Amino acid sequence: MPENRPEDDLVVVNHLRKSYGTTVAVEDVSLTVRAGEIFGILGPNGAGKTTTVESIAGLRTPDAGTVRVAGLDPRKRRTEITSLVGVQLQASELPERIKAHEALELYASFYPNPADPAELLERLGLTKVRNTAFAKLSGGQKQRLSIALALVGNPKIAILDELTTGLDPQARRGTWELVKQIRDSGVTIILVTHFMEEAEYLCDRLAIIDAGRVVALDTPAGLVEAASSGQRITFRVAGELDDAILKGLPAVTSVHHDGDRVVVTGNDDLLVAVVTELAGRGLAPVDLHTEQTTLDDAFLALAGRNFEGAER
Description:
The chain is an alpha/beta fold and 312 residues long. It has helices at 49-56, 78-84, 100-108, 117-123, 139-151, 169-184, 196-202, 220-227, 243-247, 270-280, 295-303, and strands at 9-20, 23-34, 38-42, 64-69, 85-88, 157-161, 188-193, 205-210, 213-218, 231-237, 252-258, 261-266, 285-291. Helix 8 (220-227) packs across helix 11 (295-303). The chain is elongated and about 75 Å long. It starts with 8 loop residues before the first strand and ends in a 9-residue tail after the last helix.
């Protein structure tokens, strides 16, 4: 991404806080979303992701902090925000018998300058099921219809919340390509997800939220680099190997065992140093694998917990 200018910030959130009774959903969230990017909000269930984007869309009133969308306060400029922001929520549902084209035409009637429902159906690959009842659509078709409903008002920003949950791998990949096409058409996207692969593939930048706070904000590559602890190799060895031999190598930082496998971490010279040392002692590493730090590793290092729990 090129260097950011203040005028590029389409969404600005500062010190957002939101509670439900005694439960604090969002403690302190600050972030900016730049025009033209896919901005990801990543975190475990219950981290406060959905509450954050609902506050951006004007669906929730924060207890403290500020939200500005294209310079507007969603709490005070609800009508303008409705036209600017299209939302696909995690728990969106429609009447079972409503047909795909009927749902789009109904939503189009809510906006002063809507997109053409027929063109949206074509664009999202739904023309063949335009007369199909919502209840009979496949999971992927329902998600595509949900995206169409978010886009029918010709928004500048589309909020997509847990877009591909429950989809099979093929439908998920197809949806990812659709999201890229939407961004390329000029719509800024805020993507809420807990899928690492999805975040890494789609997002220009990511905010990791945990326990209601932003714990990191960077590009996917930047987050991985910040969490990187160098290389890691794993292997088995036929013969006796004293761990002290490997620990004595300058490139090695740690040695431990996972069952019958030796796990060695170190700097970028690790692989050559270990293989050379083993060869010099007449030992051959078997089933050797090299591993680099991933976004999963970065998330675990930054958020420190898994995805269990309920979304707030």
